[in-house]
Amino acid sequence: MSGIMHRVLNYGMNVLKMPGRVKELHEMTVESTRLQARILRELRDAASVTLERVCSIDGVTPWAGGPIRVVMLVHYLEAWASLEPVFRAMEADDAFEVTVASIPRRFPGAPGFSGEHVVDAELTARGVRHVRLPFADSSESLDLLRALRPHVVFRQSQWDADVPPGFSTRALSFARLCLVPYETMNIVENVRHAGTPTDTAVDTPYHRAAWRVFCANDVVQRAAIEGATLGAEQFVVTGHPKSIAIREAEGHWPIDGPRRPRIAWSAHHSIGDDWTRFGLFPAMSEAMLRFAETHPECDVVFLPHPMLLTFGGHHQSPVTQVEVDAFLERWAALPNTATYTGVDYPSVLRASDALITDGLSMLIEYQLLGKPLVFVERDGHRPFNDVGDVVVTGAHRIGDVAAAITAVHRFACGEVDPLRDRQAANVADLFPHPDPDRLILDAIRTGLSASRLEA
Question: Which Gene3D superfamilies does the entry link to (predicted)?
Fold first, then answer.
């Protein structure tokens, strides 16, 4: 019997031995129908977790030596920087046969699954050989994916809702699932909705079913150990590949013309009240537009989170999609502005002089470049976790939009940043591994070799 089977059975026995659980099972026979329904739902969810974990580990394509077949499913083009260093390393290593597949996506507010053709075009432009899985019936895509007989499958995020059903956690149970998180590390205490008390940064069905989840550092791994439902042996510390992409990016500024002070403006999608509540686009958009209009001697590039561009169609959005689109049109009409939504955003960050942002990932990613960072902080946002408390020490925290814009303007024009040394210390602490791509390949090799010996 495999290690995962032993762990699942032991978990089940421990649950049955717990006095609190025995009491609950007794209460189920005498309490109200509501209590019965709640406990039955908990048992059903626990069974689902166990099934996902067993299917994804014990029913996988066997590896008997030879090249390790890997498939990377790409729907989140803007996060390709998290996987590209791993892809390049696998391409250069004869021990791996890596295939990239472009697939559709659906972010909150979007009417349906779409966008595979955009992923295909960008991957082609970057010279990434890939297969296309654009079919409206994702079961057809799944059949083609299974025909590749991958030993390992990477998906870009843990969110099943973002991809068609054929690429869901359950559908991919024929392979060893891996995850390089699209963010370098989670920096907030995650939202825990009623009925789902788990930390979705480390404990979704995809995390539970995963064979390996690659962590940036020991602190991230400890958070997984504390928050995981069935243990966290799948969480491995390797460093995060996006750190390579950002550090090695060559600067490219999407506005032509003479060299002027360059401001990057990043906007998060959490503009409603149902998630982390960092997004300030509704409060910042007009102010940033006025700044760009009255400061033609400065360039400003808008870097919206991709979910922000569709969130106007969500029922909880404080702005409509029409209002978002109208702003983008007015922004594009100015000679000193641009909007960038592509895969090469690290190159835009590299070419900028300073960044203004409402969070989240940019608060840590920009510090890898050692440039001035202004954080426009929204009242009532989700609390920072231990990592976040460290990260924000490298940013200028300003609650007033006008004051934040004034500050980023000063830095873009050359004012020395007093937090530069603090940022360098943060980067050294949070990104201790300079070669995460190699460590990820080694972890896959070691894990497969160990499972072969166990078999």
Answer: 3.40.50.12580
